[in-house]
Amino acid sequence: MSTPRKQVILGAYLGGVNHHTAWWHPEAGSQIDFSSFEHTARTAERGKFDFFFLAEGLILRERAGQIFDQDIIGRPDTFGVLAAIASVTEHLGLAGTVNATFNEPYELARQFATLDHLSGGRAAWNVVTSFDAFTGQNFRRGGFLDPSDRYVRAEETLRAVRALWDSWNADDIVADKDSGRFLARPDAGSFEFRGRQFDISGRFTVPRSPQGRPVILQAGVSPQGRDFAAANADAIFSPYGKLREAADFYRDIKSRAVAAGRSPDDIKILPSASFVLGDTDAEAIEKYRAIRDEQVTGQTALILLEQIWNRDLSGYDPEGPVPDVEPEPDAPPFIQGRAFLHQDRFATVKRLREVSEAKKLTLRETVIDQFERGPIVGTPARVAEKIDDFVNSDGSDGFILGSHLVPTGLDEFVDRVVPLLQDRGALRTEYTGTTLRDNLGLPGLRSAAVPVDA
Fold it and tell me: Where do the Luciferase-like domain residues begin and end (predicted)?
């Protein structure tokens, strides 16, 4: 018996926290004006996307003590933006990135449950963590956590939030006008949670929301992060865009989910991706190269390498060789607020030098070769085929798509690629579910309260 074709899950993000966003483009709009968020969300809903994804920045990044102007600065509050988007959309999920390190479970539970009510069951929480003092200086506790403890706090935060969500049953509000009875039980909303991080009890103010629990998103690459996501998340962001690596990650997360007592289908794998379209493949490749050269200027290339070297490289020629000095891992961070994802600076520098020498690349060309995410490039038909094949080869369950151009970049994908995905039977033509959980094909939840550690 043949395996049924997988449906492609699509999320949309609005760029604004990295050098990929072409803020200088003549057609570019604001990254903070609501019209940009509204346009992107309406476009995604027109394309039958599953959700709109909003990243979060808690501090302005710095280079040598100055604002890091390679990033688009400024990020409005997540809940205000998503609540506003809820009022101009009907089906689109609303996924917000909110930090588990700097927020209390009661606040998080109340805010996401409220968003779920306001949107009719479309809320999702992307759970992220922090441990650095630079970000924490904006907060009362200073935010300084040992890196190994960030997932300890995150897991307990999530358990506490779920305990609050589950303190109300779906049928706790009777509201019988004839009898005058409002609540089915007098202790509705009562909660008590005891743990290493939190010792809280009281009465939760928000009745059970349409989804029961908002959808949980997470990103984790380390073994600890993968275990946390596999045990707790409904969807996880994958950093892998090449099929072989992506398929390995896909299998690993699904197997960890099974080890945690879940079904493989209980968690969805979603890499982020951009795209470049052309009437021919050659035209699309030419457009991609032009965009890439605008994104990775000489200054940008040097700053990206400074994250690895942890030292000032401004005196080096971007069109010259890769720097011959060694990194300084023990020096104070030269760039603050931007995560360094490599485990070994010296090994990374060695690899960059080897690539540069083997391919005869300049410093800037080496950065392009090694740092570029690799958008999906081609004709609309080719891009639709690549997306469909990637998902049905178990590289992922879908993609979170964005564009270098805010806010109109997604329009071309919706107008030219979405109809082809629908023709292939890979994407819905109409929304069929009433909640985000429904549309993602996630299992339903019990309506009654469940144990806090479930």
Answer: 28-393
